[in-house]
Amino acid sequence: MGRRILMYFTVFGIAMWFFGNLYEAIVIGPNIAGDSKEQLRAFQQFTEVTNPMYYYVPLTLIAAVTLIVWFVRTPRKAPEKLSLLLACVAEIMAIVLSVYVIAKLNMTLYFGSLGETPQELHRLALQWNVLNLVRVALTAVALLFAMRALRLVWQAWARHPASAV
């Protein structure tokens, strides 16, 4: 039962991160690509009380840890092992990219004083949009491979119901 919860939570957490990044790419990204300073000021005021970061960051990191635990606890010859490895690689790459995006771009664009020139803010906003699309792609790859691993586990359980405990 514990392994099932681990697997389902992992896939849910990766899916949540993927759809969160996709939402940002569709809704937030285009809004900051135009008149960046005014749009960013409006976003900062909108997220003054609550911030999506408090929701996404903990769950994203927990999902990454559970993915790694799932990978480590899976026997080497299990059919889902390669899918889990590829999901882990994509997830770790997405996290490394996110650390850069948060430290170098978000802290200026979403939490900074916006004292940079409009041209500099526009350049940072465009860089954020491009890197967020890369992050969407990486989380999509992680999600696809995690879901493939889950499907392989389900197929193994269907062949050997006694091992499903």
From TrEMBL:
Pfam families: Anthrone_oxy. Keywords: Membrane, Transmembrane, Transmembrane helix. The chain crosses the membrane at residues 7-33, 53-72, 84-103, 130-150. This is DUF1772 domain-containing protein. The lineage of its organism: Bacteria, Bacillati, Actinomycetota, Actinomycetes, Mycobacteriales.
